[in-house]
Amino acid sequence: MRILIADDDPTSRLLLKAIVSKLGHESIVAEEGSRAWDLLSSGGIDVLLTDWMMPGVDGPELCRRVREGTGDSYVYIVLTTGLDHPEHILEGMSSGADDYLIKPVDSFAVQTRLIAAERMTELHGTLAQTQAELERANFDLLEQSLTDDLTGLGNRRRMEEDLIRTHARALRVGRTYGVALFDVDHFKLYNDHYGHVAGDETLRNVAACIDFIVRAGECAYRYGGEEFLLLMPDLGLGDSVLATGERIRRAVMEAAIPHAARPSLPPFVTLSGGVTSWSPGSPLSFMQVVEKADEALFQAKSAGRNRIHAAPGSVGDQIEPSAISR
Amino acid sequence: MSDLLSDPLNRPQIEFLLSLDGTGEALQEIVGEYLTMSEEGREELLRILHEGDTSAVELAAHTLKGASANVGATALADVCADIESHAREAQIEDTAGLTERFESEFARARDALHAVTVRP
Fold first, then answer.
1. What pLDDT tens digit does each residue of chain B (120 aa) get?
2. How far is A73 from chain B (nearest CA, A)?
3. How much is the pLDDT for A320?
4. Which of A76, A91, A188, A219 has the greatest number of CB atoms lying within 10 Å of its CB?
5. pLDDT at A322 (0 to 100)
């Protein structure tokens, strides 16, 4: 262990240093309290052996500072004092000391304290490690509870949290946000033809296509079944929810996942989509925004699938799909 | 209270210091340091006893007491403890007796410690 000896009496410093060294530990010394505090602040100290009475920062003050500190590792404090001041021992222990030694100290007394110190610092080290692991596990669990198991996209819960936050922020600072809802065309026929295992694999592939297209700041979620939602929290003047929807539709189609069971061409898995946006001044709630996207999706389906429809009034809904570059 | 004919040093403490490193170097170092700092401490203590600054007397006596105990100068440490407690209770008007005892124990301890340091 690394032991700091704080004492204004040079003979006590030399004596403690010799004892600590004989017991096989490393030691550094401070001639007064403020120097000791500097050394403690720079870390790496396992045990503090401090005198009670020192000019400047005294023993109990040093104890208090160590205990108020937010250092990661525990410093085991042993107060050294004369037998004629039992009240010092009580005050020292109340200030944060773990144990005390009566002067003049002997090897045996120091040795017994250092055995306890080693156990305590190890225990605190283990506790700190366990706590860090628990915090990490908690974070992982939270992350898991917000992730869709099959596709790895955000799940419904994360989607709702993000929608609420995005809507509140758009209201407060006057931003425009977009919502796109996608549905895999003829997915029931796909499952019936290829089986559910292949169906799951296809959902994973479609999700990967969507996730590949989304830009920084945007987020895709599995809305449920074969439906996906894309949230575009910050739409600028040049942005088009329709264009984004189109890019995703094309990406999925061009992945050319065979779908032999569908009644219409192309013979691949395709998406239908409905897009909309919310702009400042709109009376709609975020749920109503999602409903609008759902209505547009229904229109896209009714119009023959494999296409994107924009709800009236959406940002960029005038753009011709054929004019959208990839 | 000590008998002037008794040994001014607590020999087990000297043996303990000797055992710290087996070579006696630690003993030489600690006692050497003590002889220097105690000389300064003595002068300081006598000066402030004369001036009557009780809290300064208490601190100086306390420091000298602890250092003396470290090197086994138990009788001197006892006198220092008496001075310290008198000072704490602000009773240093009658210090003549204490000063005399202090001087006598100081000289005995110093001589005995010098003898320890010249021992091979």
1. 456 678 899 999 999 999 988 888 999 999 999 999 999 999 999 898 888 788 889 889 988 999 999 999 999 999 999 998 888 887 666 667 888 999 999 999 999 999 988 755
2. 30
3. 47
4. A76
5. 46
Count of domains observed in chain B:
1
Q: What are phi and psi of A30, to 5 degrees?
A: -130, 135
Which structural domain, as residue segments, surrounds residue B108?
11-118
Token pair belonging to A204 = 């994973």
Any idea which of A248-252, A277-281, B51-55 has the lowest mean pLDDT?
Answer: B51-55
Question: Is residue B54 domain-resident?
Answer: yes
Tokens of B39: 């000389």
Q: A180 and A274 in contact (C-beta within 8 Å)?
A: yes
The partner residues of A219 in beta bridges, in order of sequence, read: A231
Q: Which amino acid is at A55?
A: P
Inter-chain CB proximity A11 and B59 less than 8 Å = no
- Spatial distance between the Cα atoms of A264 and A270, rounded to a whole number of angstroms: 11
Rounded distance, CA A196 to CA A180, Å? 26
Tell me whether residue A226 is one of the annotated catalytic residues: yes
In Å, how far is A117's CA from the nearest CA of chain B?
21
Residue A117's identity, in one-letter code, is A
In this structure, is the dihedral angle defined by the CA atoms of residues A274, A277, A281 and A283, taken in order, positive or negative?
Answer: positive
Start-to-end Cα distance in chain B: 32
Contacts of B65 in chain A (CB under 8 A): 82
Q: What is the CATH number of the domain that holds B21?
A: 1.20.120.160
Cα-based distances in Å from A119 to A44, A77, A112: 17, 13, 11
pLDDT at A323 over 50: no
Contact at 8 Å (CB) between A275 and A240? Answer: no
Question: Is pLDDT of A305 > 60?
Answer: yes
Q: Both tokens of residue A158? A: 């994360």
Q: Give φ, ψ of B23 to 5 degrees.
A: -100, -15
Domains of chain A with CATH codes? 2-139 (3.40.50.2300), 156-323 (3.30.70.270)
Q: In the β-sheet with A26-30, what is the strand arrangement from edge to edge?
A: A26-30, A2-6, A47-51, A76-81, A99-102
How far, CA to CA in Å, does B101 sit from each of B75, B78, B82? 10, 10, 10
